[in-house]
Amino acid sequence: MRVLVTGMSGAGKTTLLRELARRGHRTVDTDYDGWVRPDGTWDEPRMTGLLTDGQPVVVSGTVGNQARFYALFDHVVLLTAPLAVLLQRVTARTDNPYGSTPAQRQAIADYTATVEPLLRRGATLELDGRAPVTDLADAVETLQRDG
User: Fold this and answer.
1) Neighbouring C-beta atoms of residue 124, cutoff 10 Å
2) Domain residue limits at 136
C-alpha cells in the first residue's frame, strides 16, 4: 500500500509521518533528503523508483508535480487545518524554518486559498490535522489495512 499525505505547511504531515515511523511503517518525508528539486518539484525518476519498488510506503509532501504520481498511490490523504492554526504552527515550530518570515506566512495563506482546493479534488480522504496524531495515524493504518 502506497499512501501520500499532503497538505499545507503546518497541517501536521511531518508529525503524522513521525508517528507512523514510530509504529514501524516505512515513511518518506520529501521535505528532506533531496526529494524536491530546486524548481519545487519531486525528482521524478527517484519518486517513480520509490513508488514502483513493491514496498509499502507512506510519503508526505506538497509539490507542483505530485498529481503526476497519483496513479501510483493507493490513497492520497489531505491533512487540513484552519489558516490561523497553520500560521501558529509554522511560527512556533523549531524543526523547519519555513513559515518564519512574513512573506512565507503570506505564501501559506495564498496557497491555502489557491492550492488546497486542488489538493482536495485529488484526495481520496481528508483528515482534520487538529485531531490527535494517534487518531490520524490510526486512520492511515486503516487505509493500509482495508485497502
Assistant:
1) 14
2) 2-146
**DSSP letters of 28-74?**
EETTSTT-B-TTSSB-HHHHHHHHTSS--EEEE---TTGGGGGGG-S
Indicate if the pLDDT at residue 147 is higher than 80: no
Domain count of the chain? 1
Is residue 6 within 8 Å of 60, Cβ to Cβ? yes
Tens digits of per-residue pLDDT, 2-28? 999 999 999 999 999 999 999 999 999
Q: What is the DSSP letter of 23?
A: T
Amino acid at the residue 79: L
Kindly report, residue by residue over 85-138, the tens digit of the pLDDT.
Answer: 999 999 999 888 888 999 999 999 999 999 999 999 999 999 999 999 999 999
**Other C-beta atoms lying within 10 Å of the C-beta of residue 96:** 14
SS3 8: coil
- For 29, phi and psi rounded to 5 degrees? -95, 110
CATH of the domain at 69: 3.40.50.300
